[in-house]
Request: fold
Amino acid sequence: MKTTKIIALLALAGFCFFPSCKDDDVSPLTAEEAKVAIASADDEFVSIKGEVFASPGMMAQEAVYGLGLPFNPPMKSFMKFNLDQMEPLNDVAQFAESKGGYGPGYLYFPFNEYVGTWEYEEGVWTKVSTSPADKIVIEFSFNGGIDNATLTYSDYQTKPVPYVVKAEETYISQLKARIDIDGQTNPVMTWVYTANRTLTGGTVKTVNTYGSVFTLTQQMTVNTSTSGVVTIDSMFEVKKSSDVVYSKSFEMTITGVAKTNVVSYTVNATAKVQIFDVVIYYTIVLNQDTDTSNPGNFMTVTLKLTNGAKIADVVFEGPENDPYFKFSDGTTVAVPELLSEDLFYELGEFMDSIMGFIF
Reply:
């Protein structure tokens, strides 16, 4: 099921924007127009990705991960949910205890153990001061020692976990971080994590900014019931100067989770990914009996412009069920021939994450 070819094409299903379109009012693109539209979206994606990763804030953030700090620096969210790892849901108390993997992946970080100021001395990270008492301050250099920077964690907040019998436990409801670089307009990077838990679900959200140009937002909400219905809503978007230039999202409903060993279930999902004005819509419908060896058995994929003009469908052909764009004149082109390695991989990762919730 999870071959690179299948996953990457599944991901294509995600190019989507949100305005409604009256498809009947717009003529489909010709094959040549469609190829130009796809190539243009690909170029835009590669360009934006390059700008984000070349920003001082992103370079400093990436440097932090290689510092060998005494703790794993939380600046990225890891939202995971896997049907195969779940136990039957018998009551809301069990959900509250997160048995079987329910929930959108909350942050666990021993903030109070590391408050104070840290510096790298003689090859070892050392707490040089217990001040400030409500922040973690890490002074570091990167870029070959050329840039001196400070990473600060602050605004740590917790709330009681809504357990029925374990009200003494808490979860992190908020944590913030920022990076400042000497000589730069600061902060060059900010990160805000927020979470909310209930007896039947929860939401995790992270917002990263890089300078005054880029804002990256990710959010996931999971809700479930004792009747065995689980809903998952997930979104990620990149804004450049307040304009959305790339986004990906999905909505999924899983039924049958309450049954022992999850031997019977149904999955309904839709996903979208936006790259400027290119849109790909896809729908996934499957159950425990679906033959997933061919994506065409459980998924439909259509590419459009945001004005509703159809670009192409995606079909799967040959003994390996290879993905092809199928244009309005009936001609086909293999998907990897029109997409860069960067975009192909990005979309593959997105769909891999969606299918990972199921398999």
